[in-house]
Design goal:
The complex is a heterodimer of chains A (about 220) and B (about 325). Chain A has about 220 residues and is mainly alpha-helical. Chain A contains 7 helices and no strands. Chain A has one domain. Helices cover about 80% and strands about 0% of the residues of chain A. The chains are: A mainly alpha (about 220), B mainly alpha (about 325). Chains A and B meet through helix 1 and helix 4 of A and helix 7 and helix 11 of B.
């Protein structure tokens, strides 16, 4: 384990955190999808670095799957989806960005404190990054809570999976191959189902605002 | 304090006084080239200063002594700021007098006086400009402090000379925290120096202006001092950024060979920085004043992230 690869993993972790904040504060849907693809790319970089530093060959495969799925396929599906739904230039107006960022900072501190005792046990290359992974997951949660449109919520869900994957590579040396393949397939199928779901929501309510779903009866 | 230290300090002062208007001229020149206009000469700022110093100073009827005193205080603050930032060498006798936090305090003092003087006359424009200046200032200050804290934590000192010395001589490692701090610092200095995404330095009499509204009532030598102070502020911010993020080339104490190379290195770095500033100003549009809090909140966030990443990753 050279110290240079630790630096590199730390750099990718910092970039992941930065992108998580950028996604939290991004109003445009197109930019959100591009940020999601970029987050996938940072994830691939960190996975390859960990794989190279530790000599765990199966991590190369999982990096390949991540690249194919999260940098190429899912953003393409999302781009097609928003083109078909005609929400490409949609802007979410009702989010208070400065206060969201402050909440995000609090979440990061909370996640780091939470991860500190856990990472003491870990002997992996990048144990300090567990806190960042947890922070990414929590921030995706925050994004899903605060957004009212369906597409950003789905992107939040997908980026949460990014955070979980990063936690797996940083705390242990990744999950077993079978589990990873299963998750990859799940995410892909989930995306397809959610896409169909979005069309249904729009057909029912003429809008993708999911606050309409809170009412059970028509009045 | 020895003779060499005093000499280095005096050189730093003269270099700041001469290079600051040249830097403004260079930025204006680059911007003119990028926008396909004919550029004013590099020494245009000196000619303006000379013209203003020769002119009579007209002061409003209602002005108090504060209004007359402010240009001197602001100019003094900016000059002192330029003198405690290590531009050429880290051997500065004045450096122990003020550390990184006092530097922020100096800028705040200048801002306080310039705003009070703008309100002193009682015109609507001046008051509006003062209020906006305070809005920008109180949002930019914490972000600037966060950037300085990150650099201080890395080098375990708040003294600017020690920070620069430590950063220049560390082994080459990737520091994501310093990268974040660098972006935050760029955003803060754009806002503090009334540059394009926040304020337009090239307009007069526009409802959105900040800096020009503050100095609207000044004329003659007072205006010259204010303009010179503004260019010194830009120089101070540029030098602080260069010292924190590109500290190579700043001479150590008692290193005469490095001292000889320090000035050309500084000029080259400033030229590159000035071109980057002109590029930013050309490709960005000015934003609405109500988006400024968002812009500076992002800078603050980046500063806090830099601090957190350094504390928690040790990088």
């Amino acid at each position: 384990m050279t110290s240079f690869s630790t630096q590199l993993v730390n750099l990718f972790a910092a970039v992941l955190l930065l992108i998580a904040f950028a996604m939290l504060s991004q109003r445009r849907i197109v930019a959100l999808i591009n940020l999601f693809a970029l987050q996938g790319l940072a994830l691939v970089g960190s996975t390859v670095t960990v794989a190279y530093a530790t000599g765990q060959h199966h991590l190369y495969y999982s990096a390949g799957i991540t690249f194919a799925l999260k940098v190429v396929v899912l953003p393409l599906i999302l781009h097609r989806l928003i083109r078909k739904l005609n929400v490409k230039w949609d802007i979410e107006t009702l989010i208070n960005i400065p206060s969201m960022m402050l909440v995000g900072i609090v979440l990061v501190i909370f996640a780091f404190n939470l991860a500190l005792p856990i990472s003491e046990f870990s002997r992996s290359v990048s144990r300090g990054t567990l806190g960042i992974a947890l922070a990414c997951v929590l921030m995706s949660f925050l994004m899903m809570i605060t957004r009212s449109k369906a597409v950003p919520q789905v992107i939040g869900f997908l980026s949460m999976e990014n955070g979980l994957f990063f936690a797996a590579t940083s705390a242990t040396f990744g999950m077993p191959m079978v589990v990873e393949l299963g998750i990859a397939l799940d995410v892909l199928v989930g995306m397809v189902i959610l896409g169909v779901f979005m069309f249904q929501i729009r057909e029912q309510f003429d809008s993708l605002d999911i606050s309409h779903l809170e009412k059970l009866k028509e009045d | 304090m020895n003779l060499e230290g005093i000499l280095a300090q005096l050189t730093a002062m003269v270099v700041a006084l001469v290079l600051a208007p040249l830097l403004v001229g260079w930025v204006n020149q680059c911007r003119a080239w990028l926008q396909n206009r004919r550029a004013p000469p590099l020494t245009q700022q000196f000619r303006t200063l000379h013209k203003l110093f020769c002119k009579e100073s007209v002061v409003a009827y209602d002005a108090t002594a504060l209004f007359r005193l402010t240009p001197y205080i602001v100019f003094g603050c900016m000059l002192l700021a330029c003198m405690i930032i290590p531009t050429l060498s880290t051997n500065l006798p004045l450096a122990p007098a003020a550390d990184a936090i006092a530097l922020v305090g100096l800028f705040a003092l200048a801002r306080l006086f310039i705003s009070l003087a703008a309100m002193d006359i009682g015109t609507a424009f001046g008051t509006m400009g003062a209020r906006r200046e305070m809005l920008v200032g109180f949002l930019a200050e914490p972000a600037f402090l966060m950037v300085l804290f990150t650099a201080s934590l890395i080098s375990n000192s708040t003294s600017l000379a020690t920070i620069v010395g430590t950063l220049a001589h560390r082994e080459l490692t990737i520091l994501p925290s310093l990268a974040f701090a660098g972006v935050a610092f760029t955003m803060v200095s754009l806002a503090e120096n009334a540059r394009i995404p926040v304020d337009n330095p090239a307009t007069h009499l526009e409802l959105t202006m900040i800096h020009e509204a503050l100095v609207l009532e000044y004329s003659g030598r007072h205006l010259a001092l204010m303009e010179w102070a503004a260019s010194l502020k830009l120089f101070a911010y540029s030098c602080a950024g260069l010292a924190l993020f590109f500290p190579w080339g700043v001479a150590e104490a008692n290193d005469r060979v490095a001292l000889a190379f320090a000035l050309p290195v500084l000029v080259a770095k400033l030229a590159a920085g000035g071109f980057a500033l002109a590029l930013i100003e050309t490709i960005l549009a000015k934003m609405r004043i109500f988006r400024v809090p968002e812009f500076l909140a992002t800078a603050f966030l980046l500063g806090v992230l830099a601090l957190l990443v350094h504390l928690l990753l040790g990088a």
